[in-house]
Amino acid sequence: MRSLDGVRGAAAAVVLVYHCSLIAMPHLDDAVAAWLTQTPAKILFAGTEAVLVFFVLSGFVVALPVLRDGFSWLRYYPTRILRLYLPVWASVVLATGLIALVPRDPATMPDDSWMQNTQAATVTWSSFFDEALLTTTSYDINNVLWSLRWELIFSLGLPVFIGVAIVVRRHALIAAIGCCPLTVAGRMIDAEPLVYLPVFLLGTLMAVRFDDLLAWVRRPRHPAFWPTFTGGALALLMASWLTRPVAAPDSLLGRTMWGLAGIGAVLVIVATLGWPRLRTALEGRVPQWLGRTSYSLYLVHVPVIATLAYLWGNDRWPLVMIVGIPTSLVLAAVFHRVVEAPSQRIARMAGGAVPRRARSRI
Description:
72% helix; 0% strand
């Protein structure tokens, strides 16, 4: 399913642009900022929403192998944990080195900005290991690691997600609909487990009904169906932003719209599987390259752009973007070759070391 690699790459690029926009936003005119964030243009840097797409993809593609003959839980755990952790550790080392190389004074950043609130000025042994082990809830050495914590929680709890999905398999659509109010409720009461874990479960439900899902998306459709479906999916993904002219983010309506983003992320994946033109676009050379390096790009880009912002000044955000985006892409390619690909090989070797007799059929 090469189109899923493409959508992963597109989501990683959106996260990169999103974090660059957070550096720029304090310096933009209110009208310009509103136009960028409260119109369909927001899709170009809907970073937090793109992370939800990652979560759906993880729920889907990590669960699929579990449902095949010969799957081994004993092999799964070392393979999955090493694939997650080894690049994370390398990214924390990289970020720590850049923090030591370029002095950081939060007072030079706009008050209450992303750069001031989420970028570490110093690193202690305690903060280093907390972030490297994904055991904390706040990440400022490498800010993106907050999402890897949830990936780790999902990965460790995969048997529970698989078990639930199998139990409700015949009623997967009803179960999926039931996940929707959970994500909305999570936004309303600020309960992150309710926000994120149902999104992973939605992906797992897609996996256990994969054949039925493929049959549905392959049905003949009116030419306008998939463009309309995809537009609706993106509208749900960005609903909290598109409704901001009439609903404040902390209002009941605003939080409800924010909770719909997880449902939008699921529908984006469905559109990726179903719309032939979208599938073809995502199977192009650039999306596929981004997909292969997406994990590396995700891990390295914030240390790069944050360092440049402190080096040149936050007010020189255009220069940070012009230099930071290509630098992040180049560094991601290097990181993928030097860190991520070897980590994958080590993970496969660790999983392959499990005796054959320990591999069981689910």
